[in-house]
Amino acid sequence: MEESLRALDDATRAGKIRYAGLSNHSAWMVQKALGLQQAAGYAPVQMTQMYYSLLGRDLDQEFIPFLKDSGLGLMVWSPLASGYLTGKYTGTEASGRRQNFAFPPVDTEQGDKVVGVLRELANAKGVSPAEIALA
User: How many Cα atoms within 13 Å fall on the side-chain side of residue 14?
Assistant: First the structure.
């Protein structure tokens, strides 16, 4: 970790990046990185990048409060659960790439219920289920 943090510091100080970030680390690992950076006088990490969607809410309990407390930003990846929340992959007739490579993993029973609600809301607003999911 120290070597990676030093590389981020070098890149930041050289003007090659504006803000350093970490991806898919647990809260304790991000806190460890912040401590190591502070002790070494490195440019601090500014943000994290994590999976977060209506079907992947693992961050809600611990990680997001940690980010708020530490002042770090969050960039999410796969906010549509790799397309699942568009409605394209729900039901028994679902096909496409998620059929052979279901990543991120989705509880399809719960996912289909969520997509059903998204469709209702989307129809009422005249938008797509994806737009509702992102909102």
Answer: 7
Helical ranges in 1-135 per DSSP H: 2-13, 27-40, 63-70, 108-125, 129-134
The Cα 89–Cα 1 span in angstroms is: 38
Q: Judging by beta carbons within 10 Å of its beta carbon (0-12, 13-18, 19+), is residue 112 exposed, middle or buried?
A: middle
Q: pTM here?
A: 0.83
pLDDT tens, position by position, 70-85: 999 999 999 999 888 9
Gap between the Cα atoms of 70 and 22, Å rounded? 14
Bridge-based pairing of strands 20-23 and 73-77 is unpaired
Locus of tokens 């490579």: 101
Note the residue count of the chain: 135
